[in-house]
Amino acid sequence: MRIPADSLSDDALTGIIEAFVLREGTDYGERESSFVTKCAEVRRAIQAGRAVIDFDPSTETVNIQPVDG
Prior knowledge:
Layout: E1 2-3, H1 10-22, H2 35-47, E2 51-56, E3 61-66
Antiparallel strand pairs: 1-2, 2-3
């Protein structure tokens, strides 16, 4: 189930982004970036429509996915 970012409070969106960035195995390319920089990059991707927030009701988990295309 897709969750529109603008339907979330800023605190909720920040929490989702931070949890996503903190997950092991999240790849940001060849360069190392700070936690704050990574969170800002993910937020920009969501705001620009390059990434979406998905909620899986069966596992009650939230994930951020890149948009195909």
